[in-house]
Design a protein that fits this description.
Structural class: mainly alpha
Order of helices and strands: HHHHHH
Radius of gyration: 16 Å
Number of strands: 0
Distance between the termini: 29 Å
Strand content: under 5%
Length: 155
């Protein structure tokens, strides 16, 4: 019963931390797109390659087909990583930001080293390495933000 409760709590909290991580990293993707490509939505078109194929990351501008689909995939992946983050955070006596940074690092390794090309984020095909580092840093901050905000409220 305790294991079920722990999974339920991780699912509940993971939906919140996943949303925060998704939004934070999507904002950085849009800022990097605006700065590097003069096209804020372009990086979010990348994940739509999961459905629309290898040309999707190179689509410019906003579209339901590419941008909305890309963000939906991005959000789902963020929520999955957030579940891992929440389970890890509960099983360790570590600062939420440290667990979030480790989770983000694992996500980056999986995304770029272990995943078949079609199922990578796709935005790496258009953005600089520095921008990608910023995206994963924002992802980590987003993961930790709800726990950090909650710990401040409980004081």
């Amino acid at each position: 019963m305790a294991a079920d409760a722990s999974w339920n709590a991780a699912l509940r909290d993971g939906s919140v931390s996943g949303a925060a991580a998704s939004i934070a990293s999507a904002l950085v993707l849009a800022l990097a797109g605006k700065r590097e490509l003069a096209d804020a939505p372009a990086p979010l078109n990348g994940p739509s390659q999961w459905i629309w194929g290898k040309h999707a990351p190179y689509r410019d501008g906003f579209s339901v087909r590419h941008t909305v689909t890309g963000y939906a995939i991005h959000h789902a992946a963020a929520t999955l990583w957030a579940l891992l983050y929440e389970r890890s955070r509960r099983s360790r006596d570590a600062h939420p930001l440290a667990v979030a940074a480790a989770t983000s690092l694992v996500a980056a390794v999986v995304d770029f080293r272990l995943t078949p090309e079609r199922f990578t984020p796709g935005f790496q095909k258009r953005l600089s390495k520095g921008a990608i580092v910023a995206v994963y840093a924002a992802f980590a901050l987003g993961l930790a933000l709800p726990a950090l905000a909650g710990s401040r409220r409980s004081r």
